[in-house]
């Protein structure tokens, strides 16, 4: 592949990787990871609410990794309440999973920035053959993609398996019991999915630039050695 096309591919991958770092950082700071509605079952049972009357007992909830908001509906109008995970909910939620999600988000940002820098270095500099070169780009892209997948798996298990929304809704509630009525992942969660796909795409761009995947068996070692000598 001509050098100019290779530079263009590496620059494109570097920009995409940098955009992923910014997108992940923005996602961490928002409350748009989960949106849902919560039903005040105690109030609904007291008045035997059905049909349209049931909507008077359905509140809303949305939250991110650090804070959120819920609207408490128990038949007398909505009452918005703000909450934060640290330190209020640490004893209520699965703290180890939640902290792991935040940790992997931080790792994703770091390696997305590292990958972006090395993509630009490969485009305009003279990289070494190992971690600074294409093999390193495969490594940074793989780590970033893996972190994105782990974030989605861990957060999904926290929300769905450990019933995170119900635990938040029933925090410090003595008289009323709330159940999840509906629940869906919001924009920030899907941003992490997009970032994972972008890092996977970056690995394909490296292959498109003419560099074999790691651990693949070269067909002609002499030709590849000559190419490496010309590139580096």
Automatic annotation (TrEMBL):
Q: Which UniProt keywords apply?
A: Membrane, Transmembrane, Transmembrane helix
In the bilayer, the protein is annotated as: Multi-pass membrane protein
Q: Which domain of life is it from?
A: Eukaryota
List localization entries: Membrane
Q: Which residue windows are transmembrane per the record?
A: 97-125, 137-155, 189-209
The entry assigns this protein to a family as follows: Belongs to the clarin family.
- The entry's protein name is Clarin-1
- The source organism is Acanthisitta chloris
